[in-house]
Amino acid sequence: MHLSYFDADNKIDVHFLYSPYHELIGSLHVLAKYDHHMPREQWAINMIKKLSPEIKEKILLYKDITHQYLGLLNFLDNKDLWDISISECLYELEKVNIIDFFYLTFNGVINRQSIINAIKSNYYSDTMPSDYVECMKKPYDFREQILSFIREYYYNYFAMELSFSEPVLIRKLKKEYYRCKEISIYDYIKMLHPRIEVTDDRINFHKYRTFEVYKKDLQEAVFKIDSFINPHLLINIEAKKYIELIIPTYITSYDSDKLPADTLSVFKAIADETRMKIIRNLYREPMSTQKLADKLNLTEACISKHLKILFNASIVTKVRDGNYMNYHLDQMIIDSLVMYMYEYLN
Q1: What's the CATH architecture for 261-345?
Q2: Which residues form the HTH arsR-type domain (predicted)?
């Protein structure tokens, strides 16, 4: 369901969207990493108890290549999917061009040309992570498998949840639509999230870096009702002319003072001098345990202990290179430290 109007004062097409498909994918995002989503933590714990071992395994299997399922939200850029059911959405995804399907599902992590080379010519770059390579060896089989998994999760588990939350979300959609029409669209945007700043000439979105959109360029705005993604400031900006934001909606009660476990894990991991030295070295280049031990004049056992803590906090990743396991710094985590702090404070 969507409601739209044209803001004549600012010359902006404005859309308010409730999509059951968005909620479905949002729920998978939470289940993949529920300890970061305090408003939905208890919901996720209860849902996980109901899931079959196979579904739980598949949620974890697909979470990395889909950017914790956020990549699958990209398909809603197609307005033809806005007013149809989840079943119809999944059917339409079966017909999406296979290159586009992987590019959107991977959330742009793998560039389009690399996907074309992989699928059309069976050529895989040496730098492409192995889990992405495996997906594209049999691309149509992969698409069938992931969509089959989503269907099973929807019909067997999520459909009942949606029957309770959908009326609340639709009422919220209508309320927010009329609220935005009554006030300036920029005042409305500003109230959506503490990390949105509206100035005289632009909108600043403060994430791991600042994204900005100039008011003079903005032509279209889409606001999606959402009950899962919070506390993320989820935005989609295209050519500075189009923005897509979520309207956080709280379906369940929660302890707002509780610090997300993954955030606590990150800050604990960096609160050590040796681990900070490891991070600094990995910032310069990927290294093996042996090379780090030589650099820092420590034993390999000591380095391994610290790397395990950094790996468990998702600060580093590991990639096999011949006989060695090289550790890579996930710079996005470092860039996001201030963002994690503000997500909690806000």
Answers
A1: Orthogonal Bundle (1.10)
A2: 255-346
